[in-house]
């Protein structure tokens, strides 16, 4: 670097001529500047070159310069000094960008989604400038088709744009008003984008070196050239779901239920192939369908055209009324092209979705349920007469009680000539018996009522 040293004579009568100017750099003395008789009249402006300190691209350091004038009598003037911030203007190296798509947060009722990105390897005291561009704008700038491309998987579209250079700078805008400062070499920013778009979002992160001059003003001293950067590809997870599925169910021998699911008109090309998935839920009366408990999931197979079907066998219980419904979702969308190597770059996304191999689609709405009445073994009635003349009625092979489901009941009839209903007794495996009577002069009988309202043959109580 070049240093200018200026001497201006006082021009006062009787002043002592100045012999030399002694100067230092960061406390190290340099060769003094000798002054001639002409300099005593015209003054001096001398330039000296000194080596700049070693810095990395974008780095900076402070240098202190001092100078004193020494006259012929060896008297020295007061010291003049200045501190200068020396910044390395060489461009900063570009961040390494991995090939994976980076998913944003899942779309909700908010019109925007977000993604938190962290850039590492930023120079100490530096910042990162984030730029973004919409896929359609980049395609237009590159002369690529801007219609009909959305049926192609996004990882394929990203690779094509990466090979084309990611688009010119004019297609990009600032994602944030100001560069984000780095702490410990890492700069973290949360970016927000419109939700519900199938377009890719291209993000470029440009490291910026900052320095503070002697006046305390922060200035940008170096940055990564736009042309040296590579874009990261951000994708908003789909909020789409296939249409409503059809479900049918039937009981099979061995206490099993066979469930068939079908959903028509489902195209999966934009997800890179894969299979449609179905989710089987059990209906709970009085509960919103979104909270019905999951019973099983299954992968559907493509049949004719764009129809997908699947079958699953589930365990069944006896004497239960079961409602089953289904919802479906698109295949998971890969974040990386098949065969590509998932290298980790200097720009990474935070959150659990960033570590997944694919973006899972949301489940669609639940279709109309299929209902089954699962019958079982017929319980058997036994009755004995107690010593006091009462009857003790016991029923074997009863199913256990189930919350929210009707169970078995015993209707007790009595009378001298015609029998009329006397009482009803709820029964289950934990409470299989009851006592009745005595009814002097009356006959009595029991009829079992199953959970579906069916009635057993009359069982006459012994006299």
Automatic annotation (TrEMBL):
Entry superkingdom: Bacteria
Q: What is this protein called?
A: Uncharacterized protein
């Amino acid at each position: 670097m070049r240093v200018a040293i200026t001497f201006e004579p006082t021009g006062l009568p009787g002043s002592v001529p100045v012999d030399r100017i002694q100067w230092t750099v960061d406390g190290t003395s340099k060769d003094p500047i000798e002054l001639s008789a002409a300099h005593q009249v015209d003054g001096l402006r001398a330039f000296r070159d000194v080596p700049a300190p070693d810095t990395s691209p974008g780095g900076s350091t402070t240098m202190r310069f001092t100078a004193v004038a020494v006259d012929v009598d060896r008297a020295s003037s007061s010291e003049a000094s200045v501190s200068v911030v020396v910044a390395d203007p060489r461009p900063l190296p570009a961040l390494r960008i991995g090939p994976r798509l980076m998913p944003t947060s899942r779309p909700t009722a908010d019109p925007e989604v977000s993604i938190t990105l962290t850039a590492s390897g930023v120079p100490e005291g530096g910042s990162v400038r984030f730029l973004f561009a919409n896929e359609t704008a980049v395609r237009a700038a590159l002369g690529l088709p801007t219609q009909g491309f959305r049926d192609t998987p996004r990882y394929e579209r990203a690779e094509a744009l990466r090979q084309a250079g990611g688009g010119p700078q004019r297609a990009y805008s600032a994602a944030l008003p100001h560069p984000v400062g780095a702490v410990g070499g890492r700069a973290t920013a949360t970016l927000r984008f419109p939700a519900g778009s199938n377009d890719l979002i291209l993000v470029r992160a440009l490291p910026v070196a900052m320095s503070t001059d002697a006046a305390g003003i922060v200035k940008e001293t170096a940055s990564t050239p736009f042309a040296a950067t590579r874009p990261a590809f951000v994708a908003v997870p789909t909020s789409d779901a296939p249409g409503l599925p059809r479900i049918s169910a039937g009981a099979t021998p061995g206490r099993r239920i066979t469930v068939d699911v079908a959903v028509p008109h489902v195209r999966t090309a934009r997800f890179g192939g894969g299979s449609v998935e179905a989710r089987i839920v059990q209906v709970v009366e009085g509960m919103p369908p979104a909270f019905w408990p999951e019973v099983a999931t299954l992968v559907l197979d493509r049949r004719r055209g764009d129809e997908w079907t699947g079958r699953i066998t589930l365990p069944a219980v006896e004497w239960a009324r079961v409602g089953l419904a289904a919802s479906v979702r698109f295949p998971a969308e890969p974040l990386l092209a098949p065969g590509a190597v998932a290298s980790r770059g200097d720009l990474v996304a935070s959150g659990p979705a960033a570590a997944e191999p694919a973006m899972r689609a949301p489940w669609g709405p639940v279709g109309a349920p299929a209902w089954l009445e699962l019958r079982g073994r017929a319980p058997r009635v036994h009755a004995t007469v107690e010593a006091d003349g009462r009857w003790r009625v016991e029923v074997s092979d009863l199913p256990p009680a189930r919350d929210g489901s009707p169970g078995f009941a015993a209707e007790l009839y009595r009378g001298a000539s015609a029998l009329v209903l006397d009482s009803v007794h709820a029964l289950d495996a934990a409470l299989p018996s009851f006592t009745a009577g005595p009814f002097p002069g009356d006959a009595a009988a029991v009829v079992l009522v199953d959970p579906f309202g069916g009635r057993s043959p009359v069982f006459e109580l012994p006299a």
